[in-house]
Amino acid sequence: MKVLVTGVAGFIGFHLAQRLLAEGVYVYGIDNLSDYYDVNLKKARLAELQPQSKFTFQLLELSDRPSTAKLFQDHTFDCVIHLAAQAGVRYSLQNPFAYVDSNLSGFANVLEGCRHSQVGHLVFASSSSVYGANTKVPFATSDKVDNPISLYAATKKSNELMAHAYSHLYNLPTTGLRFFTVYGPWGRPDMAYFKFVQAIYKDQPIDVYNFGKMQRDFTYIDDVVEGLVRVMHKPPQKQSVAPYKLYNIGNNNPVELIRFIEVIEQALGKQAKKNLLPMQPGDVLSTYADIDDLMQDVGFKPITPIEEGIQCFVKWYRDYYGH
Asked: Residue 177, Cβ neighbours under 10 Å: how many?
């Protein structure tokens, strides 16, 4: 089996590639190594993958239409797992065109590649941010998501609509995954938990938005990868108009931010200096995943508690940064 993983030097892409390679799958990984966060961390992830015989890496910018088209002309993939994207809610306030180029143009190029090379299954990353201003919890994939409150969320909702159109028009089996606050070893330095650990180590204050009263459905990376692999092996059958399916991948157990910080403090054995602030533009108050469909269709429910997941992250952080 040959799988294309886009964003392979990213947090989720790296962990997924490790898992697939361990199972004997041939992984063709692409990434543009953008400098949105520390490129050295991305290179260190790649250095873990590159010695493996069934791994091939190509530096590629997906918004480059001719180069992406050539990728699909030169290779045949059984499955494409599209994780490459410009991430982050707050950065979309500063650099909107990065999201247009990567999340819209880049995704359109991937869809065209899958269409022309008749890929067996496209799995793509969406986000819990698409639920936007929704107040009904837990969030279900059947809920209307017409109220995005960040450009990032709007691009992810657009991806779902674009994918559905291609799935319908070209009979392309497509699955979208709405990830809920993924964390763990080798994680993204722009994420709050990573910044918290970094700042607490340095005795620097941490910014705690909405005075710590926000809730997040924190989902450990190994659970996300398990869900991804199970979904990958189960292409959707044609529903009413298209072989298309959406799933939430979340822990189904929202945790208040202030509690999450307590767990980090316990893992580090250090107290945080908290700078309590109001809500940020584009942030949502709560995320909470309804995962009934995921359990019913692939028999999986994320199970890692934050106490265990944060311990694993802190151990990796100490090893990687030599603390």
From this structure: 23
